Amino acid sequence: MAGVRAADRLAPSWFVVQVLGTVALVATVVTASSASTWLWLVYLASLACWALWLLSASWLPRTSLALLTVASLLPALAVGPSTDGTALIMVAVVLGRLAMLPSVSAVVIAAVMALDVLTAATSCLVFDRPPSLAFGAVVLCVFVTLLGMHPRHYQLQAAHSRQLLEQTRRAQREQARAAALDERTRIARELHDVLAHSLGALGVQLEVAEVLLTDKGDITGAVERVRRSRRLAAKGLAEARRAVAALRSDVMPLADAVTALAEDHRSDHGVDVEVKSEGEPRAISSAATVCLLGSVREALTNAAKHAPGAPVTITVRYRAADVQTEVRNARPERVGDTGATAEGYGLTGMRERLALVGGSLTTAPTEDGGWLVTAEVPG
């Protein structure tokens, strides 16, 4: 109620309505004719209640409502003895203003109107006035109440719209804040995955190279470690570029990116890599694309580690409800190798990242002794 009352007071028409109501009441009392002393006292008391309502409306809502009710009831008592319509006009002005207040419930307005109607009709009956006067008082009270509630309805709608707008803006701010936090988490995850793996492996290789040079004097072994470090640095740089591309949402289409990974693997390890595509290709989100590419990359790394020389088949499958990538490596050529029979931290991390976009990852041995890694995301 307080919010509606404040909004009503800030409306441009509020001051005008108060002034017009006050002018109408004062003019009606001043121009009253053939009024007895007690009628003048009733009129003045009603004016005093109106004035007190004006002064207390902003900080004493309950008291001000009582004052406005009394301001309408006092002239209603004088409808019977009044012969010039002054009392009826005062009732109409006060009751109409009461009906316009958005801070007063419709039930209270109806109750005050009924009380005014009952008081005016009783006054007409007591002072033996014609029934037409009582009927006219009833019609006038109902009419001004309905007339006053019409702008009240629009004021309530405007206040409600302002509240909805504020709630919408607050929700948008919260959504923007949540999106920013999600993006920060995504950036942190991408950078951690790239830097933690690449820099960690690079540090180990350089440390081994230092030991080979300082403690054992093995220049050949140290050079090999340095070369391996350089390859790790190049690989880490490529991973960082892919992560930045993902963060900028300019990742290449899934099929093209998988083909590029297959070509790199074929070039680096000298193995046969076949790429297949099933279904109608379609665009998916950059986050989902990055996760699928990460699972393919990890599966290729495991195939090179656990099944060196074994051919690899990559299948990109576009299904109705999801998109799936499948990396299958054949049985290792060397006896004793069994393929990626156990999950390392890489596949575990990929499973966690896929879960963040609603996807999943499964691994299983194949019938021919190879290994199968399957990732899928909604889309």
UniProtKB/TrEMBL annotation:
Q: What is the lineage of its organism?
A: Bacteria, Bacillati, Actinomycetota, Actinomycetes, Pseudonocardiales
> Keyword Membrane: yes or no?
yes
Origin organism of this chain?
Allokutzneria albata
What does UniProt give as GO cellular component?
membrane
Q: Per the UniProt record, which EC number(s) apply here?
A: 2.7.13.3
Query: Matching PANTHER family, A to Z?
Result: NITRATE/NITRITE SENSOR PROTEIN NARX-RELATED (PTHR24421), NITRATE_NITRITE SENSOR PROTEIN NARQ (PTHR24421:SF10)
Q: Where is the signal peptide?
A: none
Q: Which UniProt keywords apply?
A: ATP-binding, Kinase, Membrane, Nucleotide-binding, Phosphoprotein, Transferase, Transmembrane, Transmembrane helix, Two-component regulatory system
Q: Which catalysed reactions does the entry list for this protein? A: ATP + protein L-histidine = ADP + protein N-phospho-L-histidine
Question: Transmembrane region positions?
Answer: 12-32, 38-55, 67-95, 101-126, 133-150
Q: What class of enzyme is it?
A: transferase
Output this protein's name: histidine kinase
